[in-house]
Amino acid sequence: MAGAKLFVLPALGAAVLLLAAGCGGGGGGGGTTGAQATTTTTAAATTTTASGPAPTTAEYVSQMKVIGQSLSTSLNTLGSAKTAAKAATALQQVQTDLRAAADKLAAITPPDKIKTEHAQLVKAVRDFADELGPVIKSLQAGKMTALSSVPTLKGLTEIQTASTAISNKGYKIGG
Q1: Of 26, 34, 129, 150, which is the most exposed, with the fewest CB atoms less than 10 Å away?
Q2: What phi, psi does 147 have (nearest 5°)?
């Protein structure tokens, strides 16, 4: 088990770094400059829609990097988990932070040029957070090897795809 744990943690670390880079990972900027968010809460779900003028390229990138930095901080705690129970607790916090990041992303009015890709990124972050549920349950059951499935989750691939598409259109939100 110790050997498996040593292999799994670097793979998981690579996966979560990919996520943080996809949403920014650097510092700078703040808030949702130029956009106002409206939040509607129901018993089933929380939906956040952005309204107002789209930010400039620099404002958008800055907003995305702030979100990425907060995720990066959260993900760093997961790397220090040495037991399945501690990994489960850390991954639960990552899941909570991913959902908060998705809400912040949804509150941003993206430039028209990348509206579709931004919406795909929001969905991918939510999907990834949801996909962590079974991994957390396995960790809570003492199965540290469950972490090895994280890099293969569909939501993580979708995050990378959407982030790359945004970057390819001139919005360098990574790193």
Answers
A1: 34
A2: -60, -25
- Residues of the chain with pLDDT below 50 are 1-11, 14, 25-49
Exposure letters 95-112 (e unless 16+ CB within 10 A, then b): bebbbbbbbbbbbbbbbe
Cα torsion 139, 133, 126, 168 to 10°: value is 40
- Would you call 38 helix, strand, or coil by DSSP? strand
115: which residues sit within 8 A by CB, 6+ positions away? none
Alpha-carbon gap, residue 36 to 50, rounded angstroms: 6
Half-sphere exposure at residue 18, Cβ-oriented, CA atoms within 13 angstroms: 22
What's the pLDDT at 34?
34
